[in-house]
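Sat 14:20. Reprocessing the chain from the morning session after the first attempt stalled halfway. Input below, unchanged.
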Amino acid sequence: MKWKQIPLGPLQTNCYIVYDENQSCLIVDPGDNPRKLATVLEQLELKPEAIVLTHAHFDHIGAVDRIRDKYGIKVYIHEKEKDWLPDPSLNGSKHFMLNEPIKARPADHLIKDEGAMSIGSFEFEVFETPGHSPGSISIYFPEAEFVLAGDALFNGSIGRTDLPGGNHNQLIRSIHDKLLVLPEQTEVLPGHGPTTSIGLEMDSNPFLNGF
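Finished this time. Tokens:
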């Protein structure tokens, strides 16, 4: 199992392509620049299976419809944010974007439970990690030893909690109970910025002192 990080859009939101030896792939958080994303997919000769969203803030969903329509694939999101894709007041674009607000059609599949999940040939675990937003999830590939943490945990930082539905204490609990319990060598693929590891964040993240 391999992955590729592609920063997209004005906030340089990390989109991830997770792909296997058969050239199938999952697209996680296609935030903007659909043409750039499609070019990378074509260069790697990958066949998209689905789009999975760690959460529905505008900077993570801007290319959803263009990519799903181009490849004829389904979109997955946690049920707590099922109304956010078409609603600029919920996804935040109404308040942050200078140009047109971001809208996308509703997701095709709602994630309702934690635990093992499969899409095509991909098998992974879903953790509910709310706090940055109510329906934030993290996506864990145990055999490949990496977790896509969305905007929950960053290299040396954590997600902001001052947006609608955010909760600082809830986010700290999510990180502590769902992410810091993973093996220390687990690579953390965050929604912004460089990658890190569980062990590194346990040792040096100033927001997680005391864990």
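The chain has one domain: 2-208.
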